[in-house]
Each structure stands twice: as structure tokens, then as C-alpha cells.
């Protein structure tokens, strides 16, 4: 059994297929002993890659994008989350909500854990024809703090992860979900990457085997209604009401959160435009300059070959 150490920027429901692959032994079937560490603060994942204590990092693709040719080059080899797992909350009923309603209003957005929340929200506003500069933002605070402040009267909208949003609505009848971003198109929200210079044929082989295990985890989740493994969800997310975890999981299953381990080209190009408009890069990167799809593609071919009679 070969060790394959993962460092991740957080523990999230949109990483569910990875947790299922770990619990169901799909990585061990590939001869990999996968371990996971979550550093505090989150950018410790880059330190773990640099000192070789981690074989791969899991987080937003915006980090390898903005670091390329400036600080360190990273290569993305797989994807787990294919959609944005955020939701927009508002006070009162969400009936008749339009994105344009957010213009000239104040939006609270959590920032602890990275910049993805703000980056995506502003891109979504631009895509919807709303001038992002016409919106006021409060985003340099912890998500729990902002959630409490929003419920206490600060701001007009609150953007947070889907799981926290549904949990809040379940407890507070005075707020509602105006928009669940998972329905708003493909984007490589969470990817696996490693320092480009450290990749060897041996590493590529381990990446391929990791992708086989992860593909099986994705397939397992897509084939099972969350109601049938609610006890497992309760164990994985003990602080979340299990009915909420079931609801979010089934919503993610329905709306394309999990597809394959390959990074979608369309989603990649869309996100690169958003990152350019946010000034993280001067021009959108070309897919092949950041992503090596070979491990994921080989894993998918291996799984398909195994299904043939």
C-alpha cells in the first residue's frame, strides 16, 4: 500500500465522493493509502506541497491560476466539484427575486477559506448584467460571524455555502434562499493539484489510481439517493441536521455538482474569464497550460474497460 497524502483547504459536502471513496475502500483497491490533513490557515496547503509532506492539494483552481509564472507553477490533474456550492440568502420571501435586485444593496460574503465566494458572486453579477460596482460588499469576516450579523439586521443579502444556507433557513423563518448557485452552470470549483516540477511518471501513476478511486466514489454517490445513506451523512457531517444534508446532497446529485474527475473545458474557460475580470490574471489561461487531463482520462478508460463483458 502506497501512501498518498492529501492536504485540503476545508471539509465540505461538495467533497462527498472523496469521503465515500475513503470510507468504501475505493482508494485502497488501487493500492493507495490516502490520508487527509486540513491546515489552518487554509493556505498551508501550499506549504505542505512545498515541503513534500503532501502529494496533492485540494482547493480552488484560482490559486494555481494566479500563482502561475509568478510564484510557483502547479498542475491540476483532477476535479471533484463541477459546480459552485454557494447560495444567496435574503430576508423575507424569495418569491419574485431577480439578480438585478442586488444592485445598490449590501451583500455579505464569507471570505475565510479563500476568495472563491467573492470571486464567483461578482462574476455571477457581471454575467447577469449587474454592474458589480453598484453593489456594496462586506466580505472580510468569518462566515459564522457574518451569518449572525445578517440575521441580526446587517446587509440585504448573505452569500454562503449551500449547506449553511439551508441549515439557517431551517432554523430561521425570517430568511429564505433567493438563489442556489449549483444550478448556474459548470465551473471547476474544487480541483486537485501539485507543483509541476515535482511530477514524475511514478506520481502520474498514483494520480491515475487516485482518479480511479475518486471516479468510483462519484459514481457511487450518483447512483444512490441520499435518503439511502442518511446515516453515513450524519456520521460525516454531525453538526448539520441530517435532513438538510440529505436535501443538499440530492440537489447536488441532480444539478451536476459531480460529473467526472476531468476538468470541464467549458467550465474552465468560463472561470478563467471571471478570474481575468477580477484581475487575478491579465489574460485567461489556456486549458493545457494548467491542466493535465491524462490521469483522469486514463482512469475513466480503465473503469469503462472493466465494465465491458
TrEMBL record:
Q: Which Pfam families match?
A: NMT1
Kindly state which reaction or reactions the protein catalyses. Answer: N(6)-(pyridoxal phosphate)-L-lysyl-[4-amino-5-hydroxymethyl-2-methylpyrimidine phosphate synthase] + L-histidyl-[4-amino-5-hydroxymethyl-2-methylpyrimidine phosphate synthase] + 2 Fe(3+) + 4 H2O = L-lysyl-[4-amino-5-hydroxymethyl-2-methylpyrimidine phosphate synthase] + (2S)-2-amino-5-hydroxy-4-oxopentanoyl-[4-amino-5-hydroxymethyl-2-methylpyrimidine phosphate synthase] + 4-amino-2-methyl-5-(phosphooxymethyl)pyrimidine + 3-oxopropanoate + 2 Fe(2+) + 2 H(+)
Q: Which GO terms describe its molecular function?
A: metal ion binding; transferase activity
**Which intervals hold domain SsuA/THI5-like?**
12-226
Q: In which pathway does it act?
A: Cofactor biosynthesis; thiamine diphosphate biosynthesis
Entries under Gene3D superfamilies matching the protein: Periplasmic binding protein-like II
Quote the protein name from its UniProt record: 4-amino-5-hydroxymethyl-2-methylpyrimidine phosphate synthase
Species this chain originates from: Amniculicola lignicola CBS 123094
Amino acid at each position: 500500500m502506497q501512501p498518498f497524502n492529501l492536504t485540503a483547504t476545508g471539509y465540505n459536502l461538495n467533497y462527498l465522493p472523496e469521503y465515500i471513496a475513503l470510507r468504501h475502500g475505493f482508494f485502497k483497491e488501487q493500492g493507495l493509502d490516502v490520508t487527509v490533513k486540513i491546515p489552518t490557515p487554509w493556505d498551508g496547503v501550499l506549504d505542505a506541497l512545498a515541503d513534500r509532506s503532501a502529494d496533492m492539494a485540494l482547493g480552488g483552481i484560482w490559486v494555481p491560476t494566479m500563482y502561475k509564472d509568478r510564484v510557483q507553477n502547479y498542475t491540476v490533474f483532477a476535479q471533484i466539484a463541477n459546480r459552485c456550492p454557494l447560495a444567496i440568502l435574503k430576508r423575507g420571501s424569495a418569491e419574485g427575486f431577480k439578480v438585478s435586485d442586488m444592485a445598490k444593496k449590501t451583500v455579505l460574503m464569507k471570505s475565510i477559506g479563500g476568495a472563491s465566494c467573492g470571486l464567483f458572486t461578482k462574476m455571477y453579477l457581471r454575467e447577469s448584467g449587474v454592474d458589480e460596482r453598484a453593489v456594496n460588499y462586506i466580505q472580510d469576516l468569518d462566515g459564522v460571524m457574518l451569518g449572525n450579523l445578517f440575521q441580526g439586521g446587517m446587509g440585504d443579502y448573505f452569500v454562503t455555502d449551500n449547506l449553511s444556507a439551508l441549515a439557517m433557513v431551517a432554523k430561521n423563518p425570517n430568511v429564505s434562499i433567493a438563489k442556489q448557485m449549483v444550478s448556474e452552470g459548470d465551473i471547476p470549483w474544487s480541483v486537485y493539484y501539485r507543483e509541476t516540477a515535482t511530477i514524475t511518471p511514478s506520481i502520474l501513476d498514483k494520480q491515475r489510481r487516485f482518479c480511479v478511486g475518486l471516479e468510483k466514489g462519484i459514481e457511487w454517490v450518483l447512483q444512490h439517493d441520499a435518503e439511502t445513506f442518511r446515516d453515513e451523512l450524519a456520521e460525516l457531517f454531525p453538526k448539520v441536521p441530517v435532513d438538510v444534508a440529505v436535501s443538499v446532497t440530492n440537489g447536488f446529485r441532480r444539478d451536476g455538482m459531480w460529473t467526472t474527475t476531468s476538468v470541464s473545458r467549458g467550465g474552465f474557460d468560463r472561470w478563467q474569464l471571471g478570474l481575468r475580470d477580477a484581475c487575478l490574471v491579465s489574460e485567461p489561461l489556456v486549458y493545457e497550460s494548467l491542466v493535465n487531463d491524462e490521469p483522469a482520462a486514463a482512469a475513466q478508460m480503465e473503469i469503462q474497460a472493466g465494465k465491458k463483458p
